[in-house]
């Protein structure tokens, strides 16, 4: 009965980590400093795509005189942006199969080719009109990748505590580019004699009435945008890797669903469809609503100049506030639904305030420039800043569906609702007050869906618990 010495096998631990478990270690995840360069290049592409898309709206009076454009031409030039989303399935397939570098190179090439077509200085105005329309269409074809690939870039290059911030920067900077067009175009292109530009400058004299001079100034804007895009395309061609040598997180290295399986999973996921509608309805409506903001504010005695500034500050405010809220979401992960509820509640209040103020004859509310400015800018801030938060919630909900495919579906839906709103506007344009009620209703509809939504954080769980 004496004690015997234990054998070598008996001294082995009973619980031995498997090969799969031992291979998932934080040491295999690494973030690279070059991620900020990648984010900067992608953001610059988005900035230029938004600027080119919004070239003609702020200088439409000058463009009509220089190129004999009609109001329909100006509207169609803006409409080429949503039309560029029609082949979105092809761009999502390219992003899924070939990676971010190939899809961004193709988008940057479309932008460069489109801006080059717009810049061809032909004297035949009819041919010039077709070249400008074709250039705007090519720029619109860059939209599916530019507006959908932000979450894919943030997951591929950034750590979990920086993903929401990177998504906000990548997805909102295109809005900033379109907002800057309200300043750059009117500053370089004079308006016809006696008319005011979008920045409040009133031109007079023979120089501003000279059609050739106005055409030369527009040509300068087109050449400048083409030059910047050409340089940007060259830089992306020289250096823009699809992914880092080592993934920044467990989620970035995990296996994803195939393209066909992802589409089927998204279309059969009720929870995803719920938040997809909550995102696409208000963002699509406000995109069309902002495009005709001067028409909406005209009955309230707000000039086109003031309407342009309202649109500018609401967009810039939405970008700044969106990045700030994304950084806040990174610091307290797992609170995306609460942030969206607060944003959409603010959007509902702002939209209701603006709508009732425009109906001052019925509501007897004070309708001043200050109240219209404040309510309209707050409305843009709350809705535009919710975009990156929605994107992060999409990815968490449908993981492991690839990020590019998920965001491609919702951005297509947003552009679809924008197109529907503008389509109905062509029939009911005499009284635009119904647009305000559509915007208010879309915010309330989105808030109800988010309150009913049951959130989950599958990707965050993988990064936090599996990596540990």
From TrEMBL:
One of its GO terms (cellular component) is lysosomal membrane. The keyword Transmembrane helix applies. Mediates H(+)-dependent pyridoxine transport. It comes from the Eukaryota. It is found in: Lysosome membrane. The chain crosses the membrane at residues 36-54, 74-95, 102-121, 141-159, 166-189, 220-240, 270-289, 309-326, 338-356, 372-395, 407-428, 434-453. Its main location: membrane. It comes from Coilia grayii. The lineage of its organism: Eukaryota, Metazoa, Chordata, Craniata, Vertebrata. This is Solute carrier family 49 member 4. It catalyses: pyridoxine(out) + n H(+)(out) = pyridoxine(in) + n H(+)(in). PANTHER family: MAJOR FACILITATOR SUPERFAMILY PROTEIN-RELATED, SOLUTE CARRIER FAMILY 49 MEMBER 4.
């Amino acid at each position: 009965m004496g004690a015997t010495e234990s054998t070598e096998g008996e001294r082995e631990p009973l619980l031995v980590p498997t090969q799969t478990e031992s291979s998932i270690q934080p040491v295999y995840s690494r973030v690279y400093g070059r991620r900020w360069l990648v984010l900067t290049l992608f953001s610059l592409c988005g900035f230029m795509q938004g600027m080119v898309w919004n070239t003609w709206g702020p200088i439409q009076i000058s463009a009509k005189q220089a190129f004999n454009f009609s109001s329909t031409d100006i509207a169609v030039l803006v409409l080429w942006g949503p039309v560029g989303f029609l082949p979105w399935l092809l761009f999502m397939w390219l992003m899924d199969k070939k990676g971010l570098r190939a899809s961004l190179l193709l988008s940057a090439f479309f932008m460069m080719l489109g801006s080059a077509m717009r810049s061809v200085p032909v004297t035949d105005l009819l041919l010039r009109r077709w070249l400008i329309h074709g250039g705007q269409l090519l720029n619109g074809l860059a939209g599916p990748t530019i507006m959908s690939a932000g979450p894919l870039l943030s997951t591929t290059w950034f750590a979990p505590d920086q993903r929401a911030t990177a998504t906000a920067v990548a997805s909102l900077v295109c809005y900033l580019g379109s907002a800057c067009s309200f300043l750059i175009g009117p500053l370089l292109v004079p308006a016809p004699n006696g008319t005011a530009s979008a920045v409040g400058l009133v031109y007079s004299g023979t120089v501003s009435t000279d059609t050739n001079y106005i055409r030369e100034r527009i040509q300068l804007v087109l050449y400048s945008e083409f030059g910047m895009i050409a340089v940007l395309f060259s830089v992306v061609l020289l250096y823009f890797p699809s992914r880092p040598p080592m993934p920044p997180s467990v989620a970035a290295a995990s296996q994803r669903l195939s393209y066909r399986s992802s589409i089927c999973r998204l279309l059969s996921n009720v929870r995803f469809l719920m938040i997809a509608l909550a995102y696409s309805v208000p963002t699509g409506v406000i995109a069309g609503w902002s495009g005709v903001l001067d028409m909406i504010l005209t009955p309230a005695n707000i000039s086109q100049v003031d309407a342009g500034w309202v649109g500018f500050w609401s967009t810039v405010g939405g970008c700044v506030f969106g990045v700030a809220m994304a950084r806040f979401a990174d610091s307290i992960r797992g609170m995306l639904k609460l942030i969206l509820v607060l944003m959409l509640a603010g959007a509902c209040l702002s939209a209701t305030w603006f709508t009732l103020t425009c109906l001052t004859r019925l509501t007897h509310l004070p309708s001043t420039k200050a109240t219209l400015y404040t309510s309209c800018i707050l409305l843009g801030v709350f809705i535009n800043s919710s975009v990156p938060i929605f994107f992060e919630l999409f990815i968490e909900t449908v993981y492991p569906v690839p990020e590019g495919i998920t965001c491609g579906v919702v951005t297509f839906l947003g552009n679809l609702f924008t197109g529907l709103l503008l389509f109905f506007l062509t029939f009911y344009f005499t009284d635009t007050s119904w647009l305000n009620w559509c915007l208010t209703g879309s915010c309330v509809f989105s808030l109800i869906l988010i309150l009913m939504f049951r959130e989950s954080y599958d990707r965050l769980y993988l990064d936090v618990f599996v990596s540990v």
